[in-house]
Amino acid sequence: MTQSRSTWIGLAAAAVLVIAVVVVCAQFWADLGGNGMSTAGWAAMLLGIVVTLALGIGLMSLVFLSNRRGYDDPYR
């Protein structure tokens, strides 16, 4: 049970950190001045970020699962 709780705390901390970085980056981007980005541009960027993260997380999950289940072990 302790491991499960620490896992959730770690995931929550990582999520908060990602959200904080996104907010800071968005603020810096907005403060650059001059040309603003349209709502469609923000939506496209957000969609690209989400899809890229999902793909990266999914592929890394497959790597770890493959390793744990022994699919990466040499054939005897």
What layout of secondary structure does this protein have?
Blueprint: H1 2-31, H2 39-68
Q: Please identify the structural class as seen in this structure.
A: mainly alpha
Strand content: under 5%
- Let me know the number of strands: 0
Overall spatial form? elongated
Cα gyration radius (Å): 19 Å
- Give the termini distance in whole angstroms: 37 Å
Main sheet specs: none
Would you summarize the structure shown here?
This protein is mainly α and 76 residues long.
Summarize the structure in words.
- 79% of the residues lie in helices and 0% in strands.
- It has 76 residues and is mainly alpha-helical.
- The radius of gyration is 19 Å and the shape is elongated.
